[in-house]
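Need residues for this backbone.
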């Protein structure tokens, strides 16, 4: 099992390669939680995530005679960039295999670091299968994504920095978790230096392989990942990480995609940090109310910031809905001139700004002589949606609201609730 000594040795090896990231006090999250909340933005790390740490540490262990055959890696994006940069620094040829729907920014950056990129149809498992085929053909060394002691030790250097920079009085560390490499490494470092500090893993509820594995007592494969947080959408936790997690991690919890989207928007707006979905999972646990307010310092690891700009635009809109600052009002009305203008006037009178309007006259969805209009409304006052809805109904129209606080899950300490949409409007909205 990976120990504190292994992590400390990795830190020495990474001294001139890794950029230590700071601890940043979040006033927004601290006020909300009633305790000091610090952010550890690995999104500011070289390649935009923590992955360079483990990849470089593993690559150093390859014998010189084998380096000429190159290295291979399967990745959903961030590991590919870490391997590509580490290989460039060490002068080793690198090939990374990625699902073809991987975010463009991650593909281009891997190429930019000098790696050959092979795109395959399917998911991460398909990429891993293709990697094994290439290994057999080329004799190259495969750099595991998370299930390797040297990779785990490298990722654990994040934990060393947290305890050292936190002054030794960190009460809790929240760690995004997919395959478990970062969580296991951080646990080995943190528990080795500060046994009283709680280490908590955070998974997307749509792909919680660690939670399922701990419950069953053995590794469990999630049949289908249903989350837009592709960086932690790993169907099965690694064997080495699970051993460490069982021994050292205090808790592993899950968060919804809605909470992750909301955390991304909150951290972008309040902390000026752009994060990918996986990177915001730890903050989502606080914002969703999964972690109750308490005492002492908590550190949230923001594991990566390589988000596709097109997805980010959709996430921002979704996050604003979750905060009650955007609502979607759907109105059924007689298909007559002037009705839409009347509805727009009602919305404007109550401080709403209509961002988008969609009309639907499909005969299989509305009655003859009717039209359904869907209005995306920006609100001057958070939570004003129900008031506008009541005004539209008072004008004689059949209307419904998505994004209203009454549909939200209860939050602690009065933070503006998010939304729980149903039906086809919400199905796979961020996946």
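Answer:
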């Amino acid at each position: 099992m990976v120990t504190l000594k292994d992590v400390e040795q990795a830190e020495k090896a990474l001294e001139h390669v890794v950029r230590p990231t700071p601890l940043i006090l979040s006033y927004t999250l601290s006020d909300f939680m009633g305790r000091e909340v610090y952010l550890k933005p690995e999104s500011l790390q070289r390649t935009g995530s923590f992955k360079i740490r483990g990849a470089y540490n593993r690559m150093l262990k390859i014998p010189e005679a084998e380096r000429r055959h190159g290295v291979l890696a399967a990745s959903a994006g961030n590991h590919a960039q870490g391997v590509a940069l580490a290989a460039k620094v060490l002068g080793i040829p690198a090939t990374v295999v990625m699902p073809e729907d991987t975010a463009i920014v991650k593909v281009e950056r891997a190429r930019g670091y000098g790696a050959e990129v092979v795109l395959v149809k399917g998911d991460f498992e398909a990429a891993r299968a293709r990697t094994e085929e290439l290994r057999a053909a080329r004799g190259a060394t495969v750099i595991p994504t998370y299930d390797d002691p040297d990779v785990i030790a490298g990722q654990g250097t994040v934990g060393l920095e947290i305890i050292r920079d936190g002054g030794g009085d960190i009460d809790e560390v929240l760690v995004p978790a997919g395959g478990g490499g970062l969580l296991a490494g951080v646990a080995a470092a943190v528990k080795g230096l500060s046994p009283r500090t709680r280490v908590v893993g955070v998974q997307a509820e749509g792909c919680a392989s660690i939670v399922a594995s701990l419950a069953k007592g053995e590794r469990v494969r999630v049949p289908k990942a249903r989350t837009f947080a592709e960086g932690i959408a790993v169907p099965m936790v690694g064997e080495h990480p699970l051993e460490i997690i069982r021994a050292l991690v205090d808790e592993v919890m899950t968060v919804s995609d809605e909470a992750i989207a909301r955390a991304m928007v909150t951290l972008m707006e309040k902390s000026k940090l752009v994060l990918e979905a996986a990177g915001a999972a730890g903050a989502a646990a606080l914002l969703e109310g999964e972690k109750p307010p308490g005492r002492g310092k908590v550190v949230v690891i923001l594991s990566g910031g390589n988000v596709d700009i097109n997805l980010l635009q959709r996430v921002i809109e979704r996050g604003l809905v979750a905060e009650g600052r955007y609502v979607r009002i759907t109105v059924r009305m007689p298909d007559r001139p002037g009705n839409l203008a009347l509805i727009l006037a009602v919305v404007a009178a109550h401080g709403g700004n209509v961002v988008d309007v969609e009309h639907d006259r499909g005969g299989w969805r509305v009655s003859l002589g009717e039209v359904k209009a869907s209005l995306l409304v920006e609100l001057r006052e958070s939570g004003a949606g129900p008031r506008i809805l009541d005004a539209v109904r008072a004008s004689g129209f059949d209307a419904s609201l998505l994004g209203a606080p009454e549909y939200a899950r209860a939050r602690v300490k009065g933070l503006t609730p998010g939304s729980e949409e149903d039906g086809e409007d919400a199905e796979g909205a961020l996946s």
